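Protocol step 4 of 5: obtain the predicted structure for the target chain.
Materials: sequence only (see below). No template structures provided, no constraints applied. The aim of this step is simply to have a reference model before the mutagenesis design in step 5. Sequence pasted as it appears in the construct record:
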Amino acid sequence: MYRTRPEVGAHERSHTEAFFRKIKFWNDMSSAEQSKNSNQSSTEEGKESDGVKRDPPPVFVMPDGQSYLHVNRNGLIFGCATDKNVSPCAVIELLSRIAKVFKDYCGTLSEEAIRKNFILLYELLDEMVDYGYPQVTRTENLKAFVYNEPIVVTSVPNTGKMINPKTASANAVHKPVIGSVNAKGKSVNSNQKNEIFVDILERLNVIFNNNGYIVNSTIDGCIQMKSYLAGNPELRLALNEDLVIGKANAGSGPSYGAVVLDDVSFHDCVNLAEFEHGRTLSFFPPDGEFVVLNYRVTGEFRTPFRIFPAVEETGPRSFEITVMVRAEMENSHFGANVAIELPLPKCTASATCTLINSSNVGNPSAEFVLSDKKILWTMKKFPGGSEQTLKVKVTLEKACTSQIRREIGPVNMNFEIPMFNVSNLNVRYLRIAENMPGYSPYRW
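Step 4 output (structure tokens):
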């Protein structure tokens, strides 16, 4: 049962229900708690109540005195509770490992996959954690203790195929790392191929000023792999020959045009003996999905998009916002699943949107979300070398002041660009170190 001190809060039926309610209605509960304590708190606390919806923090304390920790993966929440003084980082890392192992053994991480493979996942969880203490958390080490076969679940349809079939993910990426069966109990991958998939993933965080110039820019990237290779062969991965690690080393040699990374961290399976002189990594890939290396880039780089906003007052209670977005990448690339958010003042009564030059854009739409007081502008495909413009006519409930103008923005843009990376980090080749019987590697 959910324990609570008699002087604080109300009884709940279970820890799980209390945790779920806290996560699901975080903003409502936070607002209620702030209004409850407004009479006895300072004005600093009131500043946080700005009406903006926020995600719940990964760690919080409930009225029963227990600490709840959680991570969100693919819309699924992996959480735990403790009344001990544990390291939050260690627990969050454990929850992330559990989510990764579940994905490796199910092929895909979804609610349906967890429901159909509950017995397998319960068996995995029993081996990974004993009495709350982590034991075995590696995919390859768990194979010796797992006897159930996963039931294959159809993965979520890939929207990339609708845009460009060349960039669509192969169905093999969603295969489990062990032999699997379908819902009727028949084997589905008895003749499993020896395959390994490589992705370079980069997350850009860029801040522009109102003139479109970059104020701050960073790249957080990684090289991610998913291995289905039998026999655990040694692999060799070669990166750019002109790769420079650390900005301090960029000026010590002929680094013009070189790829400069601020810092890099490697997976513990990587051997760095040949990295200094040949920029080559050798490693024995673990089963399932893993990150070979993480890297970070700061400073000036060419951003794939630029945003140019403008605000013009058209009356005492109305103004017009123009947002022009320019794609500065080549015509051969495009932005997919583009979503642009424009926050508006809290006193906004109505807003009408007009799209300009949207004929070559896939499924463009722009709408005013009244509950969140923001404009949501979405596009399935944003071609490189093109410009898109949005005009918004806003009507306010009261006269526009300088304080109200400060509530406009900032513009937030999220997007994906298949087969493109900003840092210019490349994989020259991926090879099997030695000739092994049964292997005839080729790129498909």
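Step 4 remarks: The chain has a mean pLDDT of 79. The radius of gyration is 26 Å.
Proceed to step 5.
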